[in-house]
């Protein structure tokens, strides 16, 4: 089941996302280059859900930055829907750990925001926003402001905000990292329900291996920094999934052990580096 990823070849639809030999170097304050990720090669198919795990600070968010066009690759290529990324590509949605909701706008206006930015008229945008507010279970809260909502409710707003523009690529950087365990599991189920059938390719960065396996079609294990792809493991658990149920199955536990064996080595390398720095 464990497979090193190789680039797909031949005819067929372009991958939703393609990184080939992608390396990112930043310049540190004193002008020396610092390599954040190296030689990352990965393809994500349309409609596929890929989770990325790796030790802390290895370069997971940097990988997302290259796909989103927020940063350019120093070497290698990055493509979205077959086109080289040069600036922020169309059709890409985001969800981050911090709230992207605007505190001075109510739920309706926050959810309608992406459509309004794209020039849609207020009536049409509000209609679609009300529909999405219903889908995320917030009907009746349209007039509330973010500070009047719980953390889970704000995440529901963020999910509606990200999905209302029907992105073909959805980038998620530890979106549920700040939530309590119960809310987090609920949000994972909600996300799967909302995502299924959208055809969006998802890249979900997380520190939580259980979350990664519960959600993904494939789990990508990154090495200690500067990260490169170490393993890509196919998660052949049936969908639709209820995350709190599949976690208890022998297949899930087997996958967990297999991926953790690979990830643990990288975590230990990272910890040893940290220890040597403070020694
Ligand atoms: N704009 C930047 N300039 C300089 N260094 C950066 C920049 N962005 C990230 N880095 C460095 O690149 C490395 C990888 O950072 P990144 O945030 O991608 O890791 P991560 O795996 O997402 O981290 P975490 O697990 O803590 O969320 C880190 O050492 C970080 O300090």
UniProtKB/TrEMBL annotation:
<dbReference type="InterPro" id="IPR017871">
    <property type="entry name" value="ABC_transporter-like_CS"/>
</dbReference>
<keyword id="KW-0547">Nucleotide-binding</keyword>
<dbReference type="GO" id="GO:0005524">
    <property type="term" value="F:ATP binding"/>
</dbReference>
<protein>
    <submittedName>
        <fullName>ABC transporter ATP-binding protein</fullName>
    </submittedName>
</protein>
<feature type="domain" description="ABC transporter">
    <location>
        <begin position="17"/>
        <end position="249"/>
    </location>
</feature>
<dbReference type="InterPro" id="IPR050166">
    <property type="entry name" value="ABC_transporter_ATP-bind"/>
</dbReference>
<dbReference type="InterPro" id="IPR003593">
    <property type="entry name" value="AAA+_ATPase"/>
</dbReference>
<dbReference type="InterPro" id="IPR027417">
    <property type="entry name" value="P-loop_NTPase"/>
</dbReference>
<keyword id="KW-0813">Transport</keyword>
<keyword id="KW-0067">ATP-binding</keyword>
<dbReference type="Pfam" id="PF00005">
    <property type="entry name" value="ABC_tran"/>
</dbReference>
<dbReference type="InterPro" id="IPR003439">
    <property type="entry name" value="ABC_transporter-like_ATP-bd"/>
</dbReference>
